[in-house]
Amino acid sequence: MPRGQMSKLHTHEKRHQAQGGLRHQSSAQATVAKEKAFPSLAPPPFGVLTHRKPAARSCSTLKGSQRALSTKPAGVSPTRSYKGANRKTEKKPSSSQASLTIVQSQGHPLTRATSILVQFLMHMYKRKKPITKANMLKIVNKKYKNRFLEILRRASFSLEVIFGVDLKEVDSTKHSYILVSKMDLPNNGTISPGRGFPKTGLLMNLLGVIFMKGNCATEENIWEFLNKMGVFAGKRHFIFGEPKKLITQDLVKLKYLEYRQVPNSDPARYEFLWGPRAHAETSKMKVLEFWAKINHTVPSAFHFWYEEALRDEEARVKATITQQAETGAMASECSRECLAAPPTPNQVEEGSSYCG
Asked: Tell me, what's the pLDDT at 109?
């Protein structure tokens, strides 16, 4: 090819590359602007039991780690039963109450020890039995006794993010513990008496989705999120049971969720909101703390929602102060009336509950 033509071709390629670079830069800037204006939802990974060191990450970093909340391969899977303490006094779980295997990290030496401890703790929680360090030590492999505190920490994390249950020490001298649900769901969080596992963790996740979708999430939003967890409508889940019934009937009937038709939608579409019991038993900040813990970060990393949660906390405090003031005013008014008009002898004899 003549030198002149080669020079023209080279100049054309340079111009083309420069234009492409400008287009790419413009596109990147537009994407950043859109992300700032419409922050995307980063669902907490339900199977994230690979205990990495906590680090404060921004929402943009969290978006890059939107792992599915898988519950079989990466989170929880049914096994036979645990071997451990209280074998004589405790009944062996039935197949419908399958024990759990929690996978923290592939090949980690503490994985099995943690899994067995989680199974034992859930077994005791469902039966409302006391939990002691001595009993827990009986089921931990002897070679891991010196790492018991680390195993207990891992097990506690798994219980919280999967089942929404906190492990709390109630007696530091006797080293006794209790498991406390984050919300007051009936039957220790199982919804149905004696069946399945606690659903509190799932409910906390759903409340988080609703909160982060502007306090009102469409049914499509909810199922998109649940599908990433490996939870599908009409397909029975070994922890959550039949999920559609659970979230559109059971949790709605218990007033933890509100499920309503989108106004003027044809064909009919539905959306979810927090129910009155959710507002009473938890808060936006508590839900945000739950999500932050799963993502190994801090609530303030979710900048937009953190600000809203702070405003919600302030409103709650003001409402509480106002209610206390009104109650105090009513009590004071009642006291003045009682002093101004003491009960008559007949009222005393009749046992009248005068003035309250």
From this structure: 75
